[in-house]
Amino acid sequence: MGIETRKEEEISLKLFVVLTRTLDAIKKSVEKDIRRYGLNTTEFAVLEFIYSKGEQPIQKIGEKVLISSSSITYVVDKLEKKNFLKRVPSPEDRRITFASITEEGKRFMDDIFPQHQETIARIMGGLPLEEKEVLLTQLKKLGFHAKEA
């Protein structure tokens, strides 16, 4: 094994550790922010998705917000109990049920989402805009490569 190969492996391992620790620190800060609104991260992700994208088939939400389909019913139930979401049967297909944001849910998100965006900006404030743009491009490139590796 050549020196360049060894150096590549060492840097790759170091990059993995740094990325993992960075993501962990970011996630903890974001989770803390979300908890102050009385939601967990999964509830927030589902509510934010429907707030941003509009009414969605419940069966499709899990793949969009990266949670298991077995968990989605539980999360929708919790958000329904909080009166943030409601279930709407599909008029075309009885097998499909949509999750739709309620007026209360919309008011809630209208109120908290700008604060949440500010918190995310503050958490990500360790880099100037230009470096964020470069990092975003590089992380996408790395992610696409990792999917194929």
UniProtKB/TrEMBL annotation:
<protein>
    <submittedName>
        <fullName>Transcriptional regulator, MarR family</fullName>
    </submittedName>
</protein>
<dbReference type="GO" id="GO:0003700">
    <property type="term" value="F:DNA-binding transcription factor activity"/>
</dbReference>
<feature type="domain" description="HTH marR-type">
    <location>
        <begin position="12"/>
        <end position="144"/>
    </location>
</feature>
<keyword id="KW-0805">Transcription regulation</keyword>
<dbReference type="InterPro" id="IPR039422">
    <property type="entry name" value="MarR/SlyA-like"/>
</dbReference>
<keyword id="KW-0804">Transcription</keyword>
<dbReference type="Pfam" id="PF01047">
    <property type="entry name" value="MarR"/>
</dbReference>
<dbReference type="GO" id="GO:0006950">
    <property type="term" value="P:response to stress"/>
</dbReference>
<dbReference type="InterPro" id="IPR000835">
    <property type="entry name" value="HTH_MarR-typ"/>
</dbReference>
<dbReference type="InterPro" id="IPR036390">
    <property type="entry name" value="WH_DNA-bd_sf"/>
</dbReference>
<dbReference type="InterPro" id="IPR036388">
    <property type="entry name" value="WH-like_DNA-bd_sf"/>
</dbReference>
